[in-house]
Recover the amino acids of this structure.
């Protein structure tokens, strides 16, 4: 199929291009669009057949439901069963933001969107093009991350074109995105909230708004579960096509990256102050945690195109956005290594 590629500014989109995207969505087509987190693969959320095509194109298991993206609070009422006034007020003050909330679903939402989940996942993305597109469609857009299933998420439109040209109707070519890691997903309770996927909305900020916050090991990427609240958490995710190894401590990362005998065989991925004095090739994640978050998935795809057989990455402290960065690294890595001998096993 022919894929239209429209280059536009994600913060000040060409209105003509927004209308073109909405026209395609209304006709049941698929549109790759930017959000503040990662690119989404969108369809009209109330068109079951269009949503079914998302699963086909992504090769996504049917039991892994889709997030609905809204552009104003009135859309929330239509797709959920009675949300209390206090919650609506809290969310109206937080959204648009990289925060997804699970609600009891309304019967209007097609089963193709929610699978067997009793919930519908909703968020209002903090991106002008996304909000304009949803507004022009006049309905929520259902969208998973735009990557093919199991692949690293797409945070730069160059990678969207490489992976999806010929498979979708339209790709908005808007370059790299602000956060680079998906939204935080929460399930609200009487006293607070459970984080079911760590993401770009920091847990520390959730505490101020919702009260007691529980973060499970599954959300941290420390273990998987057979029936997690967010079905996606049980699947393999984000892994590059060659092994990425997480170094269990900084000393080991420095030992490996300063060993000239590993040049052209092992690549080091890290923030700049960890890459000082490296003797092997590197991919920089920038200077700060927010920069590292924005570049993480692109670095995995850059590693795939490099000649090295393996990449090593260092750990991040799990506060602020560091929690989500670590959860993605844990899920993407083939193993966590404690010694240079373990690295050798992957090289032989
Ligand atoms: O930032 C994001 O959240 C991006 C952008 C495009 O909005 N979207 C995204 O979607 O990351 P996806 O499909 O890659 O991940 C959505 C996660 C999956 O783990 C899925 O299982 C869970 O949300 N989820 C979606 N709908 C759900 C539902 N109705 N009940 C439980 N979990 C749900
Ligand atoms: Mg995804």
């Amino acid at each position: 199929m022919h894929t239209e590629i429209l280059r536009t500014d994600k913060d000040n989109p060409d209105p003509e291009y927004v209308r073109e995207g909405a026209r395609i969505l209304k006709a049941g087509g698929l549109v790759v669009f930017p959000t503040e987190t990662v690119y989404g693969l969108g369809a009209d959320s109330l068109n079951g057949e269009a949503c079914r095509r998302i699963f086909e194109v992504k090769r996504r298991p049917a039991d892994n439901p889709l997030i609905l993206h809204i552009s104003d609070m009135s859309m929330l009422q239509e797709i959920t069963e009675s949300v209390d006034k206090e919650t609506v007020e809290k969310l109206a003050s937080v959204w648009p933001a990289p925060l997804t909330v699970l609600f009891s679903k309304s019967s209007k939402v097609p089963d193709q969107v929610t699978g067997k989940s009793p919930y519908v996942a909703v968020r209002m993305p903090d991106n002008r093009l996304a909000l304009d597109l949803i507004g022009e469609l006049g309905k929520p857009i259902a969208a998973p991350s735009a990557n093919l299933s199991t692949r690293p998420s797409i945070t730069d439109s160059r990678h969207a074109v490489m992976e999806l040209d010929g498979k979708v109707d339209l790709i908005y070519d808007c370059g790299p995105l602000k956060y680079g890691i998906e939204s935080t997903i929460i399930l609200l309770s009487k006293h607070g909230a459970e984080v079911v996927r760590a993401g770009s909305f920091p847990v520390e900020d959730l505490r101020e708004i919702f009260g007691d916050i529980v973060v499970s090991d599954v959300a941290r990427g420390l273990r998987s579960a057979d029936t997690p609240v967010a079905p996606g958490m049980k699947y393999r995710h984000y892994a590059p096509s060659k092994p990425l190894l997480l170094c269990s401590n900084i000393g080991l990362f420095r030992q490996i990256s300063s060993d000239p005998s590993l040049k052209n065989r092992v690549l080091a991925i890290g923030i700049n102050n960890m890459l000082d004095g490296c003797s092997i090739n590197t991919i920089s994640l920038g200077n700060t945690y927010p920069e590292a978050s924005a570049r993480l998935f692109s670095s995995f795809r850059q590693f795939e195109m490099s000649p090295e057989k393996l990449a090593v990455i260092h750990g991040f402290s799990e506060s602020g956005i560091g929690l989500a960065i670590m959860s993605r690294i844990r899920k993407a890595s083939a193993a966590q290594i404690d010694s240079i001998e373990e690295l050798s096993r992957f090289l032989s």
